[in-house]
Structure formats: structure tokens, C-alpha cells
Amino acid sequence: MSLEPIDPETALELYLTDKEAELAESSIQSHKYRLKHFLRWCDKENIDNLNDLTGRKIQQYRLWRRDDGDLSVASEKTQMDTLRVFIRWAESIDAVEQDLSTKVRSPSMTPEQNTRDEMLDTEEAEAVLEHLAKYQYASCQHVTVALMWHTMMRVSSVHALDVDDYHRDEQYIEVRHSPQTDTPIKNKKDGERLVALSDDVCMLLDDWLEDQRPNVTDDYGREPLVATTQGRANKTTLRTYVYQATRPCFRGADCPEERDPEECEAAIKDQQAFRCPANVSPHAIRRGSITHSLNSDLPDNVVSDRANVSPAVIEQHYDRRTEKEKMEQRRDYLELL
């Protein structure tokens, strides 16, 4: 086989463009983020042609990246698995030797290692929402955090909602995949669903729409449900809302790191809130909400449908009930027989 020369930067651009047809924008950005480290390494090693890659060089990259990023086992596996996909694609355009992808090694992981424990528990979630209801009622931030907690939605789903997706009379919200107008959701069409809302959440949305929501449209003339004065709140803004609201100092709780809120950059500057070591990401809200629903005896299949995630994935990645808690819940069902 005759290889065709191509530099790493051009190859990555072509790869990401090719993947746009099959991956959500968030996944594209994740691949771009992980592979930019590979580009850094290529530059460091003066590799300006992917034809020169070998299995040994890829192993050298793996060891360099592990040390450079101080990666956990899970992070190393994610990054090397993404590199393998990229190298397999490079094989298809004759940029690297055939079967080079089989030489991309990543660590094996136990089920315990392949899960993440970060979670907003019920008590903390209630404290955050109580604070928002008292001091920032029906604000964009309040609506965002409340929707994430009560509906288990991902950031992309909250970002995609329009005003007319909220059906106040029937008390539900419709999640739709609209990539043609820049609001794709994870799982694409399979992620579309109707999500029932409680009386309290409907009251919050009603007050937001009637009193607080700016009268704006997005670049496509749609009316975003979660909006700022500039239009549809972007996903970075939604994540920032979560990082801000879940800082312990935000709600007046003590800092577990014993930092002084008047000197801590993460406390002083909202845009630096992600640097707080004690707050959580949006996915931790989703994980906490799923666990809360399971603890509240909501059947597994109902949680699965509502959260748009398979029962197997819930079991491995989201369910944080202890074995004893699961046993006691089964005991309650037995007593009904």
C-alpha cells in the first residue's frame, strides 16, 4: 500500500468534518479536545507527517500523555480510545499503515474504575434550589438548575428547549433534536421524548415566562425557553450556572476546603466558579437526580425512559444506592405481596 503524506493538523480537521455527519456537536468538541494533545505531542516530536507513525511511537505518546496530564485510569482510557478511532479513520484515507489502530493500547478497567462518583445528593440539591427560590426566584439560573434536577436532562436538552416545547396545560415538556437549527441533543432522534412536570416546576416556568424571560429569539427565529438578553443561553452559560449555584459558599455553607470566600477566586468571580473544588458539574446533577428518583421508589424503567438512558447504563454509571438500600427497597415490595 502506498501512503499519502498528510500533516496531523490537516488530518484532524478532515476527521472532525467527516464525523459531523454522525456525531453530535458536543461529541465533536470532545474529540477535538482529546486529540489536541496528540497534536501537541506531534509538534514536540517534530512529526509533521502521519505516515511516520508507528506502534512504538503511539505507545510513547500514551506514556507522555499519562504523565503530562496526570491522568486517571478512566481519563487515559477515554483519550486513547478516541485516538484509536482517529487512527482507524486515518487508515481509511491511506494516511497511516493498515492495522496501526490495533496497536493503540489503552488500559483495561474494572466496572468500579469505569464509573465516576461525583454526584449532587438530595440534601444539597434541595439547599441549592431553596437558596435560588429565595434570592433569585424565576431567574434564568433558577430555571436551569431546577429543570436539570427535576427532569434529569442533559445540558444539550435544556439548551434545545423552546417556549412552545412547554405545554403548561398538560404539564409536560417536549425534548426535540433539531441539528439543522443548531440544537442537537445526545442520542439524536432516539433522545426525543415527553417529560412530565410537577406543579412546582410548572409554576416556576410560568413565572419565568410571564415576568423574567427576555423577549428574544435565536438566530433561526425560534423562541428559546432558557434565554438571556442575547438570545438562547449557550451550553457554556448553562454549565456556569451550575458551577456557580453548587458552590457551598453560594448558599452560605462552610467551605470544606476552609477557603476564605473574600479571597477565593472561584467565590469572587462567577466565571471562575468551575475552579471551586467543592462544587459539581451538570452531569453530577443528573446523576444525583437519577439516584434520588431510584431511592424514591420510581421504577427503573420509568427512570430509564425519563432520563433517556438504558437500565444497564443507569446500573453502572448513575445508580449510587448502596446494596443495603436496594435490599430495603426490595423488602418494601415484598411486604406488599
Automatic annotation (TrEMBL):
A GO term for molecular function = DNA binding
> Per UniProt, which keywords does this protein have?
DNA integration, DNA recombination, DNA-binding
Domain Tyr recombinase span(s) in chain numbering: 115-331
Indicate yes or no for the key word Ribosomal protein. no
- Name the Gene Ontology biological process terms: DNA integration; DNA recombination
Core-binding (CB) domain location is: 6-91
Task: Quote the InterPro entries the UniProt record gives.
Answer: CB (IPR044068), DNA_brk_join_enz (IPR011010), Integrase-like_cat_sf (IPR013762), Integrase_catalytic (IPR002104), Integrase_recombinase_N (IPR010998), Integrase_SAM-like_N (IPR004107), Tyrosine_recombinase_XerCD (IPR050090)
Entry's Gene3D superfamilies?
A: 1.10.150.130, Intergrase catalytic core
What is the name of this protein? Phage integrase, N-terminal SAM-like domain
What organism is this sequence from?
Halolamina pelagica
